[in-house]
Design brief:
With 156 residues, the chain is α/β, with parallel strands linked by helices. The chain is built from four helices and nine strands, in the order ββαβαβαβαββββ.
């Protein structure tokens, strides 16, 4: 059963910039409110033109509303995520975390098979996590669209 509001985040390591830099997503959310949004793939049109830029633009406002961290997750390697973040000018506004084997994506059961992008990918979604517990979750109805998971639609 996919993760839902009220569930705790699984304790899974993601990777930031290099395979040596592990970030445990559950520990990252301890004692704070974070936003996690997932995309089917780095550098893909919808992700690069709309989804990620929206969070970059709204990051300061979201942080003023009590959000400690904003995390972008994708089933990609950490080098690709770092390069995409640099290309998109995320700076310190968004943490670009790689889920190279889809471990987190499968743990929350929000995976999809997109053969055209290489197979296992994440559905597009956004979630608010407060002290390790999911308080809000919006999964795109078709898994890839751009509506309820956008920064403008986040439900804090």
């Amino acid at each position: 059963m996919p993760i839902k509001e009220g569930d705790n985040l699984p304790s899974v390591d993601l990777f930031e910039e290099t395979p040596a830099n592990k970030v445990n997503i559950s520990k990252l959310s301890e004692g704070k409110k974070i936003i996690i949004f997932a995309v089917p793939g780095a550098f893909t049109p919808g992700c690069s033109k709309t989804h990620l830029p929206g969070y970059v633009q709204k990051a300061d406002d979201l942080k003023k509303q009590g959000v400690s961290e904003i995390v972008c997750v994708s089933v990609n390697d950490p080098f690709v995520m770092a390069a995409w973040g640099k290309d998109q000018g995320v700076g310190n506004k968004i943490r670009m975390l790689a889920d190279p084997q889809g471990t987190f994506t499968k743990a929350v059961e929000l995976q999809t098979d997109l053969a055209v992008l290489g197979g296992l990918r994440s559905k597009r979604y956004s979630m608010v996590v407060n002290n390790g517990k999911v308080t809000s979750l919006q999964v795109e109805p078709d898994g890839t669209g751009l509506s309820c998971s956008l920064a403008d639609a986040i439900k804090l």
